[in-house]
Amino acid sequence: MIELFKAISMGIVQGLSEFLPISSSGHLVFTSNIIQLFSHSPIQDKNSYDIVLSMMLHIGTLIAVFIFFWKEIIEIFKAFINGCKVKKFEDYNSKMGLYIFIGTIITVAVALLLDNTAERLMESPAIVGTLLIITGIVLISSEKYSDSLKEKSTKISKRTAVIMAIAQGLAALPGFSRSGWTIAAGLFSKTDRITCAKYSFLLSIPIILGASIVYPITEVNIHELISYNWTNIIIGTIVSAIVGYLCIKYFLQFLGKYSLRVFGYYCIIVGILASLVFTFI
To answer: Is the separation of the CB atoms in 130 and 171 below 8 Å?
Structure first.
């Protein structure tokens, strides 16, 4: 029963935190460790099941992105393929496809450099809390800079795409919010919030898809996969997809009216609490 509760709880957390700028990986670390604490398990006792569960929850939010943006995804994909055929990327959709392609390569390069560090941090929730504090500061600073601008772009430029891709790579570190850092990078590049958020969600597609394919092939023994409780994992994935879809819908509406500051303060408060709690446990 505790495993089902864990899958549902982490599904809700993943669905919310993947798109809200509060670090999904960081919150999954906190949630998993808190559940292990109350179930009297060592908080650093991580295994391949936990990692596979986390991966499947990310697939749930990937499904949410596909469902919400399916029209845009099809248009961008068609325009990108056509651009590759004629070797010209003139219209905005073809450029978006090219930016996502190049951005994915940049993200992977940065993330690979941080891979070992990221894995170690998954077992150090107190340090993850500190990184969440940094995320909060970045969000508040980006909003302050954005507010000072007289004009903001409603389109993603090549420069903005590269900066957001680097930011997404840095977010391989748990506690550094992927959506938070990419949106903040876009704001620092003089782009409006909604444009940044939409591009951030689209940019996440190849990374999550690639990770969900590569990880099982390279890291998990097929016999271990068969032994997992896939009913719980699938339930968690469905919960993640539903919550993720609703989160995208209402978060974009929120961004049309309000700033990211509230999420910045949230990250700082939760980061401080997590750092203190897990330091003394």
So the answer is: no
Residue 39 has pLDDT above 70, yes or no: no
Across 97-111, average pLDDT: 96
State whether residue 171 is helix, strand or coil. coil
In this prediction, residue 235 carries a pLDDT of: 96
Going by C-alpha positions, the residue among 110, 29, 53 that lies closest to residue 277 is: 29
Phi, psi for residue 191 in degrees, rounded to 5 = -115, 150
Enter the tokens of residue 181: 């850092």
- The per-residue b/e assignment along 29-62, b for 16 or more CB within 10 angstroms, e otherwise, is bbbbbbbbeeeeeebeebeebbebbbbbbbbbbb
Chain centroid to CA 170: 11
State the chain's maximal CA–CA distance in angstroms.
Answer: 61
In the predicted structure, residue 203 carries a pLDDT above the cut 90: yes
- Domain span at residue 63 reads 2-280
| Phi, psi (rounded to 5 degrees) for 178 | -60, -55
* Domains: count for the chain: 1
Q: pTM here?
A: 0.89
Q: Per DSSP, what are the bridge partners of residue 153?
A: 191
User: What is the DSSP code string of 99-154?
Assistant: HHHHHHHHHHHHHHHHHHHHHHHTT-HHHHHHHHHHHHHHHHHHHHHHHT-S--BS
Instruction: Kindly tell me if the per-residue pLDDT of 16 is higher than 70.
Output: yes
User: Which residues 6+ apart lie within 8 Å of 111 measured at CB?
Assistant: 118, 169, 172, 207
Task: Tell me the two tokens of residue 21.
Answer: 């700028």
